[in-house]
Fold this sequence. Notes:
By secondary structure, the protein is of the alpha/beta class. It has one domain (11-170, 232-381): TIM Barrel (Alpha-Beta Barrel). The protein has 15 helices and ten strands. An eight-stranded parallel sheet has the order 3-10-9-8-7-6-5-4. Strand 4 (109-110), helix 5 (118-123) and strand 5 form a beta-alpha-beta unit. The site of flavin mononucleotide has 23 residues, from helix 2. Pfam families: FMN_dh. Residues 3-387 form the FMN hydroxy acid dehydrogenase domain. It is an enzyme of class 1 (oxidoreductase). Keywords: Flavoprotein, FMN, Oxidoreductase.
Amino acid sequence: MSLFNIAPVTVDDYRRIAQRRLPKFLFDYIDGGANREEILARNCGDFSQLQLKQRVLRDVGSIDTATTLFGRSMAMPVALAPVGMAGLFRRRGETQAARAAERCGIPFATSTVGVCPVDEVAASVAEPIWFQLYMLRDRDFVLEMLERARNAGVDTLLFTVDLPVPGMRQRDFRNGMIGGGTAGKISKLAQILSSPRWIYDVGLRGKPHTFGNVASKVENPKDLDLYKSFIDGQFDPTVTWSDIAWLRQQWHGKLIIKGVMESDDALAAIDCGAEGIVVSNHGGRQLDGIASPIAKLPGVARAVNRQCSIMLDSGVRNGIDVVKALACGADAVLLGRPWVYAMAAGGEQGVVDLLEMINKEVEIAMALMGVNRIDEITGELLDSDLW
Length: 387
Ligand SMILES: Cc1cc2nc3c(=O)[nH]c(=O)nc-3n(C[C@H](O)[C@H](O)[C@H](O)COP(=O)(O)O)c2cc1C
């Protein structure tokens, strides 16, 4: 932002501020995608291809963005997606984001690989948070994590299925975020030293820098290389739908399968007893060269035919995108990078400001499309036959 730009307004504004505050390897870890990052661009680009209908003279004097998901009311059809290591982007980042979400009346999902453990995040707010789970080879440890989440009051589990192995994020190798040996360590140190505000906020005041939920499993939880070895050794690539059936027996709260892109996978999730799915390609961080979730959503929604709730993420950047996702068949969306940029830029208040902006954009879009309630946003309001 320059002297003449007073306040961040868009996700891009927050992104630029985040870029200035964070060490390069951390910014690129957030910002980057898989391989040539084609899908990263397509996730957002496909939203721009969609057009909505402007409707006039329909009495839009009682606009309400509230909705209900899994029996819980939300101020708008938006939740904060699970993001690993958020506590490295701002001091105790997961707790700041959870508080921001609560202030705005929406759910927050904390990651298996968050810096703050699930109980710390849950204790920072009054409403139950969501917990995101990756399947680890050590099933006893998975059960321990579920128990910990349950004891922390978590009622909704997001089980992520699109990471049997980590995607090839080239920026992470280039910057020495992963591997790089001694040269990588020196490079990371140089990047940290050129980020004084980050050193003060996260480096000095954000301790402990561990992976809260899995700290007992990582030899030195501060060492990113050992953390990478933990992921390589513990993330279970042999997981199949029968493991979801096992998980369903272990978890009696709401179960959401995150990372579904195809209709038959969505139906398999329903068969396993999931109450919801997230149509997602992990924000373009896993497989490059695939379709965007927004392009897949109408087909998946038709196949699901209201048998479970549908969320969408990957590429949502403003309130208009939220409305487009609802018109394509989603019940709600998740935001990933947008909240992380806003938090890195402005902490809890940054996330609140971003969410208020998105809420305002949804309200204005609803008024200009002639609807007062979220459930009035249907495919009728799409002016495209693109999908
Ligand atoms: C830095 C970063 C870390 C992430 N970590 C996780 C994670 O730990 N678990 C998970 O299920 N998804 C994770 N995701 C994916 C998000 O939950 C979400 O699917 C994705 O960010 C949505 O796309 P968007 O960033 O375009 O909004 C991560 C995404 C980013 C950007």
